[in-house]
Records
---
Amino acid sequence: MDSHDETSAFRKWLVAIRPFALSASAAPVIFGAAAAVVAGGARFDPLLFLLSLLAMMILHSAANMLNDVQDFRKGLDVETTPVSGAVVRRLLTPGEVMKGAIALIAVASLIGLYIVWRVGRPVLWIGLIGLAVGIFYTGKPVTLKYHGLGDLAVFLDFGILGALGAWTVQTGSTAWLPIVWAVPMSMLVVGILHANNWRDIGGDTGKHIRTMASMLGDRGSLIYYGLLVFGPFALVAAYIVLGVMPRSFLITGLALPMAVTRWRRALNRAAPKQPHDFVALDGATAQLNLAFGLLCTVSLILHAIARRLL
């Protein structure tokens, strides 16, 4: 195989992984680890952090690939979009992508077992729950996505469990704080999925697939999307007023203009200013989620600095 073929193969698998979406799994892990140090009094372990981040992103990649295969086999994904996977683009066969996903799950599981060996059983249970949700998101016999539970699955896996798992890796024990603090960014992760399902309402309904978008319809999906992209900012404000979060989290408001631009794309879905404004709304929402998640982490750092100075 020449170098051109190798590069081509690499690009095919890169498309299969859909790296633009990996911010959804990276953000809660980064945030959870930072929260463990700042609020949980943990001594930061860089190796365990990098391994947990790697395992989470590998599992996310595997879940993306499994989802692409199942959606293709059900006839849900037949037209390519800017964020389509490798199966729909005919770059790889469903069988190849399925084998790749299984290999990634095996690698992530080995990393997870090492973390469990270092940290203990609390991480094991969180990991097993997250793995089960990821596999049965589109895997039989549960197929959470096709029965209206996809939003809940994503909320848990790429929000709550990601932050709680990272906290537990650093502290060695579970706590309610990372769960509560992770809710706002978890809502934005659901926003990514909803934007995707909203775009695909026609195909999903025709195939008798139930998603929140297909159940709500176009108008209801618009309202739901608004709650998902603006709700996190309102929730952070409420947390601060109630004393649940430090005031440094006000800095997350810097991401509000990004939410407004995404909302305008949603409003103009019938007549977009740019051809792919609504089609690629999920990718744009992923960018918002990454910005919001990083600002949450910056908020923790600022809070830690303020405590030292005062």
---
Amino acid sequence: MDNRPIAFFDSGVGGLPYLGWAKEHLPRETFVYFADTAHFPYGEKSAKEVRTFVLEGVEGVIRASNPKMIVIACNTASVVALSELRARFRLPFVGVVPALKPAAERSAGRRIALLATGLTAEDGYTDDLVRSFAADCEVIRIGDGELVRFVEYELVSSDAERIRSAIRPIVEAVRAKGVDSLVLACTHFTLLDAAFKRELGDSVAIVDSREGVGRQIMRLLAQEGIEADAKGEDRLCVSGQESDRYLRFAERYGLAFAGTKV
């Protein structure tokens, strides 16, 4: 048994739905969520900058909280830095990558929309995923940094109409292209999952990697023999300026808001 925390790392609040899945299915585990808000958004930075931020941030999380596992709950950070993290630090890492495989498996029309940050949409790793799992599909890539910003800064205080307005350009693009699967390839967009389902209905499957990531966490815990038997306090920490919106997100996911203290 190992009662050290599992750490989640993201540029902001996007990874919280992934943490929510883990909290629900692993009730004895303790979690610390670190949002690198000082460098948000990653998707508008260069790959070199993101790699530096992630390596420095993860090193700080390891030093401060001694986690037994780290989940890189950010598609952009995973695509850019995951291999180097695994080479540098001797503990298990779980990454998040665009869920193209399950989307292709369920797409009858072979037309898929990939909603991501600009960096993820254009990265060669995404090209490899398309070739490996969706080579016979038309994959329409949509990079939307403004929607990432909306989720980070406005979502928690927005009503249903404001959310509907924010996602309308994506909804219209998806309908115009006639796709039958929408891949949420930035973890921030999983916070809009219900809104996309309401607007697009049953004709478009909304696909993300929450369950796949969660199952991998569970497999690694069992494989490494590091499952917990005593629950501690779950916390949310930020690297940048503290804000009431992060306190509200922490409350929504059952986390103690620790400010800038990891």
---
Amino acid sequence: MTEASFRELYDRLRARRPWGPEDRRGALNYLTPAEVLAAMGEVRLGRTVSLEAPVVDRVTEDNPDPAHHPMTGTADDAKPTGVSFAMDRLEMNVHGNADSHMDALCHVMYDGSLYNGVPAGTVSSEGAAELTIEVARDGVAGRGVLLDIPRLRGVPWLEPGEFVTTDDLVAAEEAQQVRVGKGDLLLVRVGHRRRRNELGPWDAASARAGLHPTAMEFVADRQVAVLGSDSNNDTAGNAAETVDFPVHVLAINALGVHLLDYLQFSELVPACEQAGRWSFLCIIAPLRLHAGTGSPVNPIAIL
């Protein structure tokens, strides 16, 4: 996309937000109690499936700054009698290219502003003052819908640099006999995790499959509450002139849609195939990180 066409799309999507200037929840507003109650009707098998990839605690090509997970209490520290404890500590880069995480609405600054015109200056070395991950402190529960694009195309995964378009999303709906609707948690599989598992890590910051920026019109049209992928959601490459991470800008900054990056669907896909449907109850519980721009997450699909 040219810079002009991207800005036109950004302005058009930004103007479609149905909430006033004081709103801080964004598309989570679509998840009303009615949508949550309806999503509970998706549970028929009582089967739970994790959508989180295992935390990567070693240096890989796509994760040069891995999580640190040292043991701080082991058998070597145990008292000879009485009670002792095994303990550990976790430190991680929330927005890396390997670990599953949720982006808060304060994560993306564009033209000096956050979502809904909140000044970018509200994010300082002390953290974010507004639009933090605390917006989702009560958890996110709704109807999850998985659209499997490699399955649609008859390939194991999309190659780095390939786009998912609106036409792909609509075709996947038709092929899987499901329709994305208001308040849904839309999950788009590009096969990033399967490719990584089978071929090994690569520099995902420079080359990965993802959504085309124009697919955000589908997200807006269907009033999606949360968007997630087994990739970064953005395709790495020249999707839009002069604009890095255009899907992040359009989803988070323009539409107020929280993003889930680098999920894992290796157990969800066969579970959906066995159940014969691609919708389910999905629950996301981010950590309550004061002033946080995001959080590691372990979303749970319940079929």
